[in-house]
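Weekly structure sync, notes
Attendees: PL (lead), two postdocs, one rotation student
Agenda item 3: pending single-chain targets
PL asked that the sequence for the first pending target be pasted directly into the notes so everyone works from the same version. It is reproduced below exactly as submitted, 225 residues in total.
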Amino acid sequence: MSNVAYFIEKFKTKSKEELQQIVEQPAHYQNDALIAAKQLLADLGAYVNMEPETIIEEETPKHAASVDNLIVSRQMRLIHYVIDYVVLQVLTVASMALINLSYELTGIYYQTTLFAPLDIANYFVLFFLYYLLLEHYGQITIGKLITKTMVVDEMGYEPSFSESLYRTLSRFIPFEAFSCLRKPSRGWHDTLSGTYVIERRNLDRFRKRLGGVSAEDHLVDSGSE
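Predicted structure, written out during the meeting:
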């Protein structure tokens, strides 16, 4: 898929006003994104100048020439892990209490323990929904919200549902968390889904790093990560 086709797929659900805002802010978007927005506006019957924009790029510092420098550190990953683990434990305990309450109301008592099959299943269901829903619909988890980081796809935009699903399922691989210890810190759930975790303040810089690289070329470049 070319970059223009990629952005057409990403922007096709946007309104005419949202597409117009993209076209009116060329400095914040890649040229392929601008072309896609203009094509979609033309399809909606809006007149747009299809001539390519002349954008003056900021000089890229040598130390920031790669997207690797914009990926969150291993220390940040550990913070995310601890916060999200605590949140999931709280959710699990709360749901276990509700299960017990429902059994008591029906006259049946179920003893919940951390090792009971129902409780283990309950934890994994919550784990799956927690990461899938939050990372797909908000590009965050509670840990990422606190640290002001976010999940993006390989071009710097919100992941598709399939990418979010692959990302969540990859977390169930045994010892997957240890894959984040390498440098740059991209775990298997990142590489297998083609996603990245970056700081929100670096979003524009991340997109600009990929401005002249096709999705296919970038996957080749990142294959050794």
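Discussion points:
- The longest helix spans residues 74-105.
- The CA atoms of residues 126 and 205 lie 34 Å apart.
Action: rotation student to compare against the earlier draft before next sync.
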